[in-house]
Amino acid sequence: MDLIIGGAYQGKTEFAKEKYGLSDKDICVCQKDGYIDFNKKCISHIERYSFWCVEHDLEPDEYFFEHLADFEHTVIISDDISCGVVPVDKTERAWREANGRLLIKISDKSEHVTRVFCKIPVVLK
């Protein structure tokens, strides 16, 4: 498993497509409905999955890691929602914290972790 993180609109998906030879059909783009297609080579916007979990009183890392075997060869992409002003809204704060916990566990299990800024990859692991 590999993890790619970075701010919104920084070129994470384009980087993943180039590095891993992915096409649009290889990528599951998470919506805020909690669905993840584990048959895809890449899962993008995992932070939306985290939001769905928080709204349904679930811990995203627990459910996600129940399916660890399903995505051990998957590229995971997440917007970095940890920077900036701490949200006033309780749900958004909980989302930020839950997504952080999820990314910590994913990065621990990942072979490679890359931060993308202005489409420039910075290897973290």
What do you see in this structure?
- The structure is a single chain.
- With 125 residues, this protein is an alpha/beta fold.
- 37% of the residues lie in helices and 21% in strands.
- The protein contains four helices and six strands, in the order βαββααβαββ.
- It has helices at residues 12-20, 46-55, 60-66, 90-109, and strands at residues 2-6, 27-29, 42-44, 75-79, 112-117, 120-123.
- A six-stranded mixed β-sheet has the order 2-3-4-1-5-6, sandwiched between helices.
- A hairpin with a 2-residue loop joins strand 5 and strand 6 (120-123).
- Helix 2 (46-55) crosses helix 4 and helix 3 (60-66) packs parallel to helix 4 (90-109).
- It is globular, with a radius of gyration of 14 Å.
- The mean pLDDT is 91.
What's the N-to-C terminus distance? 12 Å
Helix content: 25-40%
Query: What structural category do the secondary elements indicate?
Result: alpha/beta
Strand order of the largest sheet: 2-3-4-1-5-6
Counting DSSP E segments of at least 2 residues, the number of strands comes to: 6
What is the H-and-E element order?
EHEEHHEHEE
Strand content: 15-25%
Radius of gyration: 14 Å
Instruction: Report low-confidence residues grouped into runs of 5 or more.
Output: none
What is the number of helical segments per DSSP (H or I, 4+ residues)?
4
